[in-house]
Amino acid sequence: MELILAASAEFERVVRQLPVDSWDLPTPSQISVRDLVEHVVVGNRFTALLLAGVGREQARNMLADDQLGDDPVAAVAESSRHQAEAFAAAPPEQPVPGPNCDVPAEAFLRFRLVDLVGPPSCGGPR
Asked: Keywords in UniProt for this one (predicted)?
């Protein structure tokens, strides 16, 4: 849990420091800064929904619209908090629906860490 909290806090710190004119700039993975931040927010919210027992397809549908709104920093903070709360409430062995099979919550947590701190081609903020 400590790692997901630290990674989320670092991601939020980076987002807070973004210059106003940087949101449309490309990242090394060739998506815009805004798209990368939204990818992380969607991942955080998707994870919280899955850990709460919502199915993958229903969770996808619930997150189909813009997830950043007018305050991307608030979206990052709120989604990070909900994800952390969901992981804290889930037993490590709780099955989480993965793309091909269920995985334990503790393995899904490691996947989320890679998304938060991995190299830009993997979704991280570097």
From this structure: Isomerase
- Cβ neighbours of 48 (radius 10 Å): 22
Q: What share of the chain has pLDDT > 70, as a percent?
A: 93
Nearest residue to 123 via CA among 5, 1, 21, 7: 7
Question: Is 122 or 44 the better-scoring residue by pLDDT?
Answer: 44
For residue 19, the SS3 value is coil
- Cross-strand pairs, 103: 96
For the chain, the structural domain boundaries read 2-120
- Classify domain 2-120 by CATH number: 1.20.120.450
In percent, how much of the chain has pLDDT > 90?
80
Token code pair at residue 124: 């991280």
Please answer whether residues 18 and 33 qualify as being in contact, where contact means their C-beta atoms are separated by less than 8 angstroms.
Answer: yes
